[in-house]
Specification:
Blueprint lengths: L1 H14 L2 H15 L9 E6 L6 H7 L13 E3 L17 H7 L2 H4 L3 E4 L10 H14 L5 E5 L3 E5 L6 E6 L4 H10 L4 E4 L7 H9 L3 H22 L14 H17 L5 E3 L5 E3 L8 H17 L7 H13 L3 H12 L3 E3 H8 L3 H13 L3 E4 L8 E4 L5 H8 L9
Helix pairs in contact: 1-2, 1-9, 2-3, 2-11, 6-7, 10-11, 10-12, 11-12, 13-15, 14-15
């Protein structure tokens, strides 16, 4: 396994770079959770701008024509709606529906969906309906629904699976709905550092990029095939793996930070221009801790280890930051990089936001309890300072020579 992973690392780094390699490893880790005797579905959605390689990574992890045996563990569905998990199609007889339901087909497999943007777009009522279904399905307890056409049908049993997908950046509306309903999704931001002209020229010089993708896909497929030969589905009990306590504490801290920063709340202005915020709707961290632990375990397994290490936690850190609303993440990340205190002018300089937008998100972070917010006036800029409960992030930043690893 180790030699195969090194081949994956070599080829993908050569053809696509380190950022894509880390994306592939996160995908490997998510797929590898199928080997665990843990019945909690694990979903990881790549999110980024067009051209950020998220769909390329999904393709690399999808079985090619020479690895059809992988379809035992990986199922590709390009067009997807949550209603397809348990369908109530009016043009089918009830006895036919079980053959087309998606939920039993994904049991103990990884579902890969290259384009999920339609899932996160549309009217608020449609989004609420989609996420209400996903919440039930991603609890791992099956799903039972009822309609006037087909009556009550579904699956009242444990159905666990993993899920990889890709989408463009999410709107604030989507984050708000997920916060209200309780999200089971975590994300992996694929927007890396802005490339220089020299980097882009080097990219333009490349030839046979289609061949490179085919080669890397074959290597990734080969690795996954060997992984499942060595680690059959649902064969590894959790107590067979070791999670050092200091790393487990860090994982919990990342989850708590994520829960604060993606909490939902409403805001309105009173008659004198003051903002009135509702109480933040913080998700309880227990389910997210399980999901993050699963991914960390999967990251260890793909490296041939039964113990989680620092490298595995760097993936968890990136996922935690990626699962926050984009603008909040940008401001908060800049704050940590700046040593834990920033004024409005510094936020504007680092994030390229307008002054009203920067002030808005500074105030939001204050309301969420992760920073203290001091409002300025016409002569003094507003200031945010990291709250003491999150000061460990600065210590982590110092250890990384002033850079919070894997969060950009």
């Amino acid at each position: 396994m180790e030699s195969l992973l090194k081949e994956v690392e070599k080829e993908i780094t050569a053809h696509f770079g380190e950022e894509v390699l880390q994306m592939v490893k996160a995908g490997f880790a998510t797929i590898a959770t199928l080997a665990l005797q843990i019945y909690q579905p694990t979903s990881l959605i790549y999110v980024g701008a067009s051209g950020s390689a998220k769909t390329t990574v999904c393709s690399l992890l999808t079985p090619d024509s020479s690895h059809q045996e992988l379809k035992e563990w990986i199922i590709r569905i390009d067009k997807f709606t949550p209603a397809s998990f348990v369908t109530h199609a009016a043009n089918r007889k009830k006895e036919e529906l079980a053959k087309i339901d998606l939920l039993p087909r994904v049991k103990d497999r990884c579902l890969i969906t290259k384009e999920l943007a339609p899932l996160f777009r549309g009217k608020e009522t449609d989004l609420q309906e989609n996420f209400s279904i996903l919440i039930s399905v991603l609890d791992g307890k099956g799903y039972v629904s009822s309609s006037g056409v087909q009556g009550t049908r579904g699956y009242d049993e444990e159905i666990s699976f993993s899920w990889l997908g890709a989408t463009t950046p999410l709107s604030n509306q989507v984050h708000k709905i997920m916060a209200q309903l309780g999200t089971r999704l975590v994300f992996y931001n694929t927007d890396g550092e802005e490339k220089s002209i020299d980097d882009l020229v080097e990219f333009a010089k490349r030839t046979n990029t289609t061949d490179a993708e085919a080669t890397c896909r074959q290597i990734c497929n080969g690795f996954l095939g060997e992984f499942f030969k060595s680690h059959p589905v649902r064969t590894i009990p959790e107590d067979a793996l070791t999670f050092p306590e200091h790393l487990l504490e860090r994982l919990v801290r990342y989850v708590v930070l994520m829960c604060h920063l993606r909490a939902g709340f409403s805001m309105k202005e009173n008659g004198v221009g003051e903002k009135i915020f509702s109480k933040p709707e913080l998700e309880t961290p227990y389910r997210a801790i399980k999901i993050f632990k699963n991914i960390a375990y999967g990251a260890a397994l793909i490296h041939g280890r039964l113990e989680v290490n620092e490298d595995d936690l760097s993936q968890i850190e990136h996922i935690a930051y990626s699962s926050m609303p984009e603008q909040r993440r940008l401001v908060f990340h800049a704050l940590v990089e700046n040593g834990g205190e920033m004024n409005t002018n510094e936020v504007i300089e680092r994030t390229k936001m307008s002054r009203p937008t920067a002030l808005n998100y500074m105030e939001e972070l204050g309301h969420l309890g992760v920073v203290s917010f001091e409002r300025g006036d016409s002569s003094t800029p507003s200031v945010i300072s990291l709250e003491s409960d999150f000061s460990w992030l600065i210590e982590s930043s110092v250890k990384e020579s002033g850079v919070v690893s894997a969060t950009a």
